[in-house]
Amino acid sequence: MTPTAAESWAASAIAKFGELLEQLATTEADAMTHADLEDRLAEQGRGVLQQLLQDRLDLRAMREQPLPAVVDAQGVPRTHIVRDQAGTLTTIFGDVRVQRLAYRRRGLGNLCPADADLNLPAEQYSHGLRRLAASEASKGSFAEAVCGVREATHAPAVELPKRQLEELVARAAVDFDAFYAHTERPAQPGEMPLALSFDGKGVVMRPEALRPGTAAAAATARAATGRTRLAGGHKAHRKRMAEIAAVFDVQPMPRTKEDILGPPDRQKAPAPATSNKWVTVSVVDDVATVIAQGFDEAQRRDPRHRRTWLALVDGNNDQLNCIRDQTRRRHVQVTILVDFVHVLEYVWKAARCFFPEDDPEAEGWVREKGLEILDGRAPLVAAAIRRKATARLAPSARKAADECADYLLRKKAYLDYPTALASGWPIATGVIEGACRHLVQDRMDITGARWGLNSAEAVLKIRALRTNGDFDRYWAFHLAQEQDRVHRQRYAGHVIPTHH
Length: 500
What we know:
The chain is an alpha/beta fold. The chain contains 21 helices and 7 strands.
């Protein structure tokens, strides 16, 4: 490259910038409002940036010198060198062209080390545009994301088709699991308990994305009605469960049972504070896999198991079995607690067997039984409910009472609320319920949405990264992985040949 070319490499961008300066210096610009000035700068400023990016790519192409040897991953050298054009790269500033040296051999595809140095994507759209698409899609519908990309890149606006946007979002999320597998966590004080919590939330899916059992149930429901559209009462078989895990640190806050269910006017101790919340979610993986991922995060935080581990759940048997399995595999002791609010719901259902709908005495009865359960006397409460049902109810009217008693007895091992309250641990699953609403419901339950499997999984992963505050670090990791996948693996020894 000649010194003259080097000195004038940004001439086109400088010329565009000069034109913009001249326009802003005119008397016409004196009459413009600040909004007019913003629009003018946004419109023509992006044109300057687009040209500057193009000029920089052209400069790199002019400077590129042939390499003495370029050998592919199979050990085959490429000996024929031509200057080639990669085609159009659509960026957040608009379209640019990329020229570089291509190393060829008959019957084999080109190798272009400059593409690897630039970490060009496999598709037309730049990584910056991929990131923008992922960010927009994580906040609203795909149709809104298309508009969001258009508005963010206006002048010149990037018209990203909806299908391509969905594909970009899916590609953006592929390194989620690998990222967290390589993430280290700072150690927390041993006296601070480490909590895990798990739950599931249904997502309305397209028929082909349902799990086999759900799809079969949906087909049976349609056959029963004789309709292709599910009728009222037959719309349950449209969802696939998104499994969610949360891991967080707990600042202990000892409490008494009266702090939970005491009189409304009683001054109550504050609930335990939580911090360093981390979440993961998947509509592809099953309960066991997501729970294992939650335990992986806990293991990263406390690899030597020096802290107190808690698991807060709603009593789902599959979750309990998977948690117990993980404790055995990892040789870690975990105290499992069933959400007290969930337990209280069973007591309320039992109360409806004994009291009319609006009877104020029902609340007092529920509080009394709740205080006994908090005092560690769940089996006695179960026995008392059975006796009351036997004495007052016909067999047909006692179903909810028996279900409550059965539940309390089945879960009694996970209702050690006296120890939890004295130790300052949480006894409710508010963290995971909040994660379900924020991660899944707020985005996936948009009216009329029916999800494909890949799109749903990608959006959930991106939302989890943003919730965890890890998106920027993830993106740096993702770009490094992309360079390895798309480029580095094509060369001998996975080393990109270069002059520098």
